[in-house]
Specification:
Blueprint lengths: L3 E5 L3 H13 L3 E5 L2 H11 L3 E5 L7 H10 L8 E6 L6 H6 L4 E5 L3 H30 E4 L2 E4 L4 E4 L2 E2 L4 H12 L5 E2 H9 L8 H14 L9 E4 L3 E4 L6
Parallel strand pairs: 1-2, 1-3, 3-4, 4-5
Antiparallel strand pairs: 6-7, 7-8, 8-9, 10-12, 11-12
Helix pairs in contact: 2-3, 6-7, 6-8
The structure holds calcium ion.
The site of calcium ion has 5 residues, from loops.
Length: 240
């Protein structure tokens, strides 16, 4: 994936230096020379990272940073502030305004690229964490079976099971309540709905089909247990 970097910098030779070197490192680069264009560009094209010069004509870098960080469309984009040694730059204020890092001019190209890389890696790590978290809330595991609530998919030993919608829903609700006995009426209500006019035998038929698909001879009628006169229970300890 090619990351998009937005450079907000008014000095031509620095623009060129940055653009040339970032493109050489396979980043996509957009350059603007003032803060307002920078903000508009950030909103329009959501870059992965913004390099922001501090001393700009019109809006100065800190003001630009403040606006970027207070707009929900741009506030998550990391901002690296470029500052000259001679400039008075209050680092604390910059960080308070939401800048993620700063680089002092003159900088080495190597350092610039390293800082950008480090920052983007951190963004990626957050993204991975978020995805893992999201996935873990969608997935229920019971024994060797994995149920993805979002994708309506169940797998056994990683192999996709071919289930009908009702079978999937039965399995899901049993798995969500693993260890608990669920009555036929409860299952009928949950899976078929209150207005379903049917018999609890419907549940038995579907359980039988489900068993054929997920159990094997060794644990037949044990993984999904029949509790006589009551209902069914999924018992992960009985999984083979
Ligand atoms: Ca400048």
């Amino acid at each position: 994936m090619n990351y998009k970097i937005l450079v907000i910098e008014d000095e031509l030779h620095i623009q060129e230096l940055i653009k040339y070197n970032l493109e050489k490192n396979s980043y996509k680069v957009a350059v603007v020379d003032n803060g307002l264009d920078g903000i508009n560009e950030a909103i329009a094209n959501s870059p992965d990272l913004i390099l922001l010069d501090l001393m700009l004509p019109g809006l100065d870098g800190l003001e630009v940073c403040k606006r970027l960080k207070s707009d929900k469309r741009t506030k998550k984009i990391p901002v690296l502030i470029l500052t000259a040694k001679s400039e008075e730059f209050d680092k604390v204020l910059g960080l308070e305004l939401g800048a993620d890092d700063y680089i002092t001019k003159p900088f080495s190209v190597k350092e610039l690229v390293a800082r950008i890389r480090a920052r983007l890696r951190r963004v990626d790590e957050h993204e991975d964490e978020r995805k893992a978290q999201e996935e873990s809330t969608n997935i229920i595991r019971v024994g060797n079976i994995e149920i993805d609530k979002e994708k309506y998919e169940a797998k056994k030993f990683g192999e996709k099971l071919v289930l009908t919608l009702k079978e999937f829903e039965l399995l899901k609700i049993l798995a969500e309540n693993q260890g608990k006995v669920l009555t036929r009426d409860f299952l009928l209500d949950k899976v078929w709905g209150y207005d379903y006019i049917g018999e609890t035998r419907t549940v038995d038929v579907h359980i039988r089909h489900l068993r054929q698909k997920i159990e094997n001879d060794e644990n037949a009628n044990q993984f999904i247990e029949t509790i006589r006169g009551v209902g069914y229970r999924i018992n992960e300890n009985n999984e083979m």
